[in-house]
Structures are given as structure tokens and as C-alpha cells.
Input
Amino acid sequence: MGTVLYQELIRRKRDGGTLSGAEIASLVGGITSGGVSDAQLGAFAMAVVLRGMELSERVALTEAMRDSGEVLAWARGPVVDKHSTGGIGDTVSLVLAPALAACGAVVPMISGRGLGHTGGTLDKLGAIPGYDVTPDAALMRRVVDQVGCAIIGQTGTLAPADRRFYAVRDVTATVESRDLITASILSKKLAAGIGALVLDVKCGNGAFMPDLAAAEGLARALVEVANGAGCPTSALITDMNAPLAAAAGNALEVAVAVDTLTGRARDPRLYALTLALGAEALVRAGLAESAAEGQDRMAAALDSGAAAERFAQMVAALGGPADFLERVAHHLPTAPVIRTVPAPVAGVVAGYDTRALGLAVIGLGGGRRQADDRIDLRVGLSQIAAVGQAVNAGDPVALVHAAEDASAARAVAEVAAACRIAESASAGPLVLGRIA
Output
């Protein structure tokens, strides 16, 4: 394959041809080595956008990008992970990883920062003083071996071809390709050495996939490729027409996760989705015979305190406070300005422009407009009224946590405009479909 001209592979894909696994591996090798120029890489990405890829090509691209760097191996297992396409108030990972560890799984969870209007798991963990989201490989391995889970960011040695490929796609209008999205997501996950994966594909006005058909298409593509690469995988398509929990913003979401782990308070949607995703993961990993058994095991891990104990151990092992769970209010940063968002009329909360809530958090400083923006970990929304909740005129539908009065006032107006109140309403189903 060393004699194959990259431009010939690009031409063939441009003209609708199918590339072999060896040809795709050669192309990815050129991405890693620098033998493929940015211009060629952009041309290949555009050819894929226009012509698409067969399943065999998507599997080959995913495996080649996985193998472009280190592929982790673990002394014990089963090794499982979860990926979400992103939502508002989605703090599932912080609860799910330690609960799965308490059920006997090994969970090296490679997570990301905020993307667009959605929050990122690494940004949330950044609200915990001292927590190292980018530990070296030795520390990461030690924490996973001792605790059973570690939630961290992608290291420089995992799937380096994806990092370069994504940077080129970002400036060539080729990010949206389902084929390339699938390979990008899965190459990083599979490089972590996992043996089973569960996917949470969001659908609704707060998701990147607002249309159910599009969400199902992405879920099916991810499941097909992951299974084709030898990793047992299933996906749940879940509702994002309202925040998953009653808070949005980094420190505020960590507090919700801790309340869920300890049992101090449990948002019904967040708790239900954590159990459902955990059950899928346990079944895929061979740790439960059925989804019902998996949900029972997850509930027991949370109710017994075993999951909370794993979370506390993980936080301490990665540099956070040893007493974080006991003194969470002391350790998390708090915003100096808190304002109520009043309901304009009496009625029932019927829904939200959920994307607008995420943008309101960014406007407060809780997310990035540019890649190098510094995030204010204190700000966000809390006590967001649930769909179906009755309110009187003037009752709070949310609290705004802000750095100063002007941004608080803007956010109050934005959240009020995003909240719909009707004479009657009820929450729809949380899980909209399953792909396996």
C-alpha cells in the first residue's frame, strides 16, 4: 500500500467508489505521519460528505483511527463506557460511572468539554477543587485499577489521527457527516480498551439531532460500526425537549449528581435515565441477564451508598478533596448573584426552548463562545421547574446564578422567554427508542 497515491483514493471516493480496509488504513497512516496534506484530507472529507461510506468503510476508518495511537489494555474487566451526544442538565456520567463500578464493571470514561450549547463532563468536574481531568497514563491506570472508574479527558496518545482529522473538518464544512462523526466518536472510545458500550443519542429542541429520524439514523450508524469493530453496543434515543435535571451549569450540576449519588434528592428523569443506561451497559458487558436485572443492580448500587463511595474515592484519587461528598457545599464555587425567574401567568409548565436555556448559561459565562474562553464554573440555572409542574403567577420557574447583576437580568429574561406555560401539560416519554 505504500505505493498507492492518496489522490487516487480521494478520486475514487469522489466518484462514488468503495475503498478497501487496507486503503483506508493507508490513508489514516498518512494522517498520522503527515504524508497526507491538509488539502488532501479536506478533499477526502468532502468526498465522504457528498458520496457517503459503506458500513465496511466506516468500520475500517474507525478501527484505523483507533489504532493510530495507544490502545489501552486492562488487567481485569469487563470494561465498559457510555457516550452521550450532549444535552442540557445531563450529568448522567458523574452518577453512571461509579454506579457501574460498584456493579463490578471497569469504567475508563474518556469524556469531553462543552460543545455548542451543551455542557461538557470535563467542565463540570473542573468545578471540583484539585480534580485532575488530564492525569498521566500511570495515574489514570492506577485509579481505574483501584477504584474501578475514572472520568478523564482524552490523552495525547489516544486516537491522534482523529484529532488532526477533526481540526481539518472543522474548517472545511465537513463536521456534519454522519460517517465521519461515527468514526470520530467511536475511535476514541474504542482506544480506551472497552469491551462494551452504551450510547445515549439525544433528540429534541435541546439536542444536536432535533428530529427523531435523524437521531435514529445516527444511533443505528454508531451501533452498527461499534459492533462491526467487535464492541457489543446498544443505544437509547432519549428526550431532550426539556432539561434532564433541574440544574444547568457546571458546579450546579455537580451538586445535583452528588445529591443523586447520596440519595439526598433525586430528579426523576436523571435517575431513570441513569438506571436505563446502566442496565444496557451491564447487559452488554455480561453482568446482568436482562434490563430489569440491570436496573435492579444499578438501583441497589445507588441505594446502598456503594456508588457514592466509588465517586468519593475517584475524586480523592484524582486530586480532589477527600471529604468532597460530606462538604460538597463548602468545596463547590458559588455565584454571588442569585435571581428568581418568575412565571408570568398561572398554569402548568408545558415545555422549554431547551437550546435557549443552554445558550443562557453560555451568556452567563458558563460555556465557551471561543475554544480558548475561560469558563465561570459558578454560574447557571437551578430549580428549573419540571414539565407538568403547576405554577401561580410570580412563582419561580428557575433560579439564575450569575457573576453580576447585568448578566443575571439578561438570563432572567432569556429563561422566562424559553419557558412555555399552558392550561395543562404532562411530560412525555424519556426513552424514545432503542437500537441494538
Summary: The radius of gyration is 22 Å. The mean pLDDT is 93. The longest helix spans residues 212-228. The chain has three domains: 6-66, 80-317, 334-422.
